[in-house]
Write a structure and sequence with these properties.
The chain is an alpha+beta fold and about 325 residues long. It is about 35% helix and about 40% strand. The strands form two sheets. An eight-stranded antiparallel β-barrel has the order 1-2-3-6-7-10-11-12. Strands 4-5-8-9 form a four-stranded antiparallel beta sheet, with no helix packed on it. The model has no long low-confidence stretch (mean pLDDT about 85).
Amino acid sequence: MRVPNESRRWSIIALSVFGAAMTEVASAQAPATSQQRIPVRKESAGEVARRDSIARADSIARAEAARQDSIARAEAARRDSIAAAARQDSIARAEAARRDSLARAEAARQDSIARAAAAATAAAAAIPAALSRRGFYLGLAAGMSSPTGDYGDPYDTGWNLTVPLGWQRATSRWGVRGDIGYDSHGGNRFTSSAVPPNLETSAPRNAVTSEFDVENGSIWSGNLDLTVDLFQWGANKLGALYLIGGGGLHYFDSPQYSITPSTGANAGVATSYEGDSQTKFGLNGGAGLSFGVGRAALFLESRYFTAYTDNSNSNWIPVIVGFKWF
């Protein structure tokens, strides 16, 4: 049967309504209270201990980090100090090496200078002082000049001027010399029935005795000669007895003269003539003495010259005195 169940349900409903009514009455009689709950949290000792432990660990970590940072800074400073010291030491070593290199270079230079000076001294000792002075020289000389042979008929003794330029090696007695010479010979006055060979280029040939009046003649010469010292003396060895010889070219100025026949239709009548100028090859040879005077030498010299002029050779002998400067 279903009756009992219905009765139980209604009983339950009735009890629920009653309970609700009683609750409402109680609520109306109770003092008003806040409907908002204030949460209350109670911390256990374990939670506080845990928070303290975290804070202490964090402090320890910060202290450790600060310590590590301080150590790192100290290590960096130490490395910087070591690097600076190494750099200064490297600079000092480089500077010391530079000074040592300069000192070695200067010592080598001084040693080279000393060796060069010693070599020069040894060379000077090995070669006589006078010979070491030998080399190029230039001179100037003058003296008398005397025509000889056929050339001596129309001309008298005159004068000579010579400018020598030469070279003699320091270790040799042999040398080479060139010179420019000028000879002026005085014209001669003489009587002859024949024209002298040196004047035949323009004078008529005849057998009439005539008086010849010849004007001064001149010769320009350029010579190239070898020299050899037979003997040398003196502190500078510039004193010597030497030989000289060679060849050259000679220019003869045109001769000027007049002829006055002593007999015949033109007796007493002077006729002027002018010969032809000539440039002829010639030879020369001679000897000389030189005396050292410091770096110069005083010399006395004589040579025999012959030039192959037309009709007859022209010969003359200058004797000169001069100086040569080395």
